[in-house]
Write a structure and sequence with these properties.
Layout: E1 6-9, E2 12-15, H1 26-30, E3 33-35, E4 38-43, E5 46-50, H2 52-65, H3 74-88, E6 93-101, E7 115-122, H4 130-135, E8 137-141, H5 163-174, E9 179-183, E10 189-192, E11 196-201, E12 204-207, H6 218-229, E13 234-236, H7 241-246, E14 249-254, E15 258-265, E16 268-269, H8 277-290, E17 301-303
Parallel strand pairs: 8-9, 8-15, 12-13
Antiparallel strand pairs: 1-2, 1-7, 3-6, 4-5, 4-6, 5-17, 6-7, 9-10, 11-12, 11-14, 14-15, 15-16
Helix pairs in contact: 6-8
The structure holds pyridoxal-5'-phosphate.
Pyridoxal-5'-phosphate binds at residues 37, 165, 191, 194-196, 215, 217-220, 253-255.
Length: 310
């Protein structure tokens, strides 16, 4: 991870090494934080943040589901992110907003603890690697099930919930795979540790529905739209575990991983073991959309204004 010069913390720009919180911060003990993962890309028109407002909307929804009012408006966070990117001199970067319950009373009731916020940016390569994006990655079905709405809130991107993804990730890496695929509480395919999942069979694209306990991924939505615009049928329905191995193509989408094909599941090759033509086609248009090369999708980009030199 490449660090940056500055971070924005509770209304102030501070040096990277000075961005600190108290050790009795509620979120450190109980996971009471919500966050976003966003990317900014270099485009012909300058640096552009992909679906920035959609990410900030989801941040607010995640906070609401955990009884937190955002301490700064979404517009303030949006403009501050622009300034932070400019201050750090990045042309492309990852953007991490975090909203959390801060230092205050200890104990499980967080309602008296202050809600705090920070924004950080850094340069970050694709989560599953450039090589993985090109040639696909090897996945295993995790022994951990994805959190369900019986006990947590799959729709909220809340920090404490990520212990589920952390365990599945460690398990997949320690057993020699690149990524873990979690089933939902009913045993149907849910998603990767930080990505939504799509399966292609006989020209039709399938992806698990909202009710399967997925995170409502912004790149998932984007790829569904791109696929439909390309003329493909996209069906949101439950997917049985065996369908992964028996499909023609599988791919993962997420801000960190972008669009990464899956070439094997549980040591079984998917299709011929290389990324398939439909995956490739969607990946190309998606990559064009991220980098501002697709006129059809420019409304997804939030351009970072360049400050005038006076
Ligand atoms: C558990 C999980 N599922 C899916 C996704 C994909 O969501 P998005 O496309 O909005 O990045 C992410 C990443 O944020 C995630 O952490």
């Amino acid at each position: 991870m490449n660090t940056a010069d500055q971070i924005w913390l509770n209304g102030e720009f501070v040096a990277w090494e000075d961005a600190k919180v108290h050790v009795l911060t509620h979120a450190i003990h109980y996971g009471t934080a919500v966050f976003e993962g966003i990317r900014a890309y270099e485009t012909d028109r300058g640096t552009a943040i992909f679906r920035h407002r959609d990410h900030l909307d989801r941040l607010e929804s995640s906070a609401k589901l955990y009884y937190m009012d955002m301490p700064f408006s979404k517009e303030h966070l949006r403009e501050t992110t622009h300034e932070l990117i400019v201050r750090n001199g990045f042309r492309s970067c990852y953007v991490r907003p975090l909203v959390w319950r801060g230092y205050g009373p200890m104990g499980l009731n967080p309602l008296e603890n202050p809600v705090e916020a920070m924004l950080a940016v850094w340069e970050w390569a694709p989560y599953l690697g450039e090589e993985g994006k090109r040639n696909g990655v090897r996945g295993r079905v995790s022994s951990y099930r994805r959190i369900s709405s019986d006990s947590l809130i799959p729709h909220s991107k809340a920090s404490g919930q990520y212990l589920n993804s952390v365990l599945a990730k460690i398990e997949s890496l320690k057993s020699g795979y690149d990524e873990g695929i979690l089933l939902d509480d009913k045993g149907n395919v849910c998603e990767g540790t930080g990505e939504n999942i799509f399966v292609v069979k006989e020209g039709v694209i399938y992806t698990p529905p909202q009710t399967a306990g997925i995170l409502d991924g912004i790149n998932r939505k984007s790829c569904i739209q791109i696929a439909r615009d390309l003329g493909f049928d996209v069906v949101e329905r439950d997917i049985a575990r065996a369908e992964l191995a028996l499909s023609d193509e599988v791919f993962l989408t997420g801000t960190a991983a972008e669009l990464t094909p899956l070439r094997e599941i549980d040591d079984i090759e998917i299709g011929d073991g290389t990324p398939g033509p439909i995956t490739r086609q969607i990946q190309q248009v998606f990559d064009d959309a991220l980098h501002g090369r697709a006129a059809q999708y420019v409304e997804w980009l939030d351009l970072v204004p360049v400050p005038s030199r006076t």
